[in-house]
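Input chain follows. Return structure tokens only.
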Amino acid sequence: MLALLALAVAALASPVHKQQQQVLKPADDGKFTVLSHAELPGYALRSKEVGLCDTGVKQSSGYLDVDSKHFFFWFFESRSNPSTDPLILWLNGGPGCSSLTGLFMELGPCSVTTGGNSTPYNENSWNSNANIIFLDQPTNVGFSYSDSADSDVSTTADAANDVYSFLQLFLKANPKFEKSPFHVTGESYAGHYIPAIADTILTGNNDAGAPDNDSDLLVINLASIAIGNGLTDPAVQYEYYPQYACGNPYGPILEQSECDAMSGKYGTCKSIIEGCYKYQSQWTCVPGAVYCNSAMISPFQKTGLNIYDIRQKCDPNNPLCYSILGDIEAYLNQPDIQEALGVDVAYKGCNMEVNQRFMLAGDWMRPYVNLMPNILEEGVKVLIYAGDADYICNYMGNRAWTLELEWSGKDGFNAAPESEWVSEKTGKKAGMFRTFENLSYLTVYEAGHMVPYDQPEHSLEFINKWISKTW
């Protein structure tokens, strides 16, 4: 989930106060299997078996430990055939929001009831036909934490290196998945994370697979990436806020005069973002986040609508609009649940301090879209999907950047027809898609920022089609 941009922008003018996470207990290594790798000095993976949520499948949880950084993960095997089904990594965004949001609110094996007292079975979980990892990253997100502020991560590039090391150790600890097709998936700010992770994997694969390299690091079988309602190419995507505000499928959000005023500010916004794209420094990238978010996001904030789903009012009791986020925190902060997971700190769903740190580092507007052409040229399949009721990373902007992307298949992709997707399961018109070679774009109807939350049946259907190569 993407933390509210307006809150992040306001924070730029305010002093940052360190949020100390409550340490529950020192790690009891007697409960964990600990694994390291000679070529990843300082990194270690500790994991333990878990019996929560979906008790019918094998699962584990634990931490990637490196120096003073500790990244929490929770893994579920497939309900179908773990040994032959693919492996999925899921990442929520923010920056600063836990991937356990995806687990309990969207696509995981169970959800939570009001008050967080129980976890009902989710029949539309993505582990129906895939093994899936939920990873809390960067540090100080969810159950992840750091022992020192000096080690806190503030850029997507640094976060990608930690994720790569995690994958190497996870696969070493679970060798039956070493050859499994691997898919990196996520939403929102994962539109930054995922291209950087894929690029890091491909670079690592080239090094590990070189004929003259005697490395013991694995060549990770990266089959695809899938980004939902992502922030990937701000220079293109920010142009479409005015158009979406007054021309979305559900009716105007703002007066036409307000949309015209927003459109009038886009030229300045684009110019500042292009400066960030060119120089990629803190000093050239932070101004774009400040100006453009104020120009394009602030007008929406006055409406009281849910920035992630314009069909709803924002829950006034939750700064991120959804009451279920409080239920997830209540469940995960129960002592017996934390004991079962073997966690070291209290759970926080979204950490605005992490959001501020990435903003102040200038990461928000950086062009991670520039990594996409090489990912495609390397033969990795790419799916960009977006719910049509989301404002913050709306489908118009996501569709536009896929059309403007410079790669060898651009002309073919732009000439490819847009086809209506009718769900085989529900019989409903579920979306509109375009595909050419290994790039696909999908608009999902009647869904907001969290597509699996709003359309659980349709989201399971399209991810299964995607990972089985039937789409």
